[in-house]
Design goal:
elongated; 9 helices; 45% helix; Cytochrome Bc1 Complex, Chain D, domain 2; mainly alpha; single chain
């Protein structure tokens, strides 16, 4: 037991001696200085490998964001008529089944659409019942002649007082909601 105390005393003594000799006014030796001293680049300065400077560069022409495909139909009445002929691309080349796409579309519809269009697509959502907005159509309205393509087109660009949902949902999600809208239309 006494040996342990002697060893501990020696250890504390050596540690105190080593720390007492250190000069607190000068820094210690750096073993890997490249980890402590970063290479600084001034914002917007010209550097050898970026001739236009370090500011944000414009993307290369004809590039698109990952996971996004351009729609290709204009936001005009003629474009909406052109969209009427579209069919959903999810059925042909998607790894999810029709039921899984419908389930995802149902969830997204509940989040983004049901507040105005209602859970059944009858145009009697919460905001319509509270008379916060008026004129929300039912999906079975014959004058509207809704197709899966026009539903997608409307979500992409918006229509009347309904804004675009292209910033909230990606292309696949909008097609899933469009398919679900067609299911609701058939049930009405």
């Amino acid at each position: 037991m006494m040996d342990n105390f002697k060893k501990l005393g020696w250890l504390i003594g050596i540690f105190a001696l080593l720390t007492a000799c250190a000069d607190k006014n000068s820094p210690n030796y750096q073993y890997m200085p490249n980890m402590y001293q970063p290479v600084g680049y001034e914002t917007y300065e010209e550097v050898d490998f970026l001739p236009e400077g370090t500011e944000a560069q414009k993307p290369v022409e004809n590039t698109i964001m990952r996971g996004w495909m351009p729609y290709g139909i204009e936001n005009t009445p003629e474009g909406k008529e052109q969209a009427r002929l579209l069919s959903s691309p999810l059925v042909a080349n998607d790894s999810l089944t029709i039921a899984e796409n419908e389930a995802n579309g149902s969830q997204l519809y509940t989040i983004y659409c049901a507040i105005c269009h209602g859970d059944k697509g009858n145009g009697q959502g919460y905001l319509v019942e509270r008379e916060k907005i008026l004129g929300v159509p039912s999906y079975d309205d014959a004058a509207r002649n809704i197709t899966v393509g026009t539903a997608f087109h409307t979500m992409e660009y918006g229509l009347n007082s309904m804004g675009s949902y292209a910033s909230q949902m990606n292309t696949k999600e909008m097609w899933q909601v469009s398919q679900y809208v067609m299911k609701l239309k058939s049930e009405l």
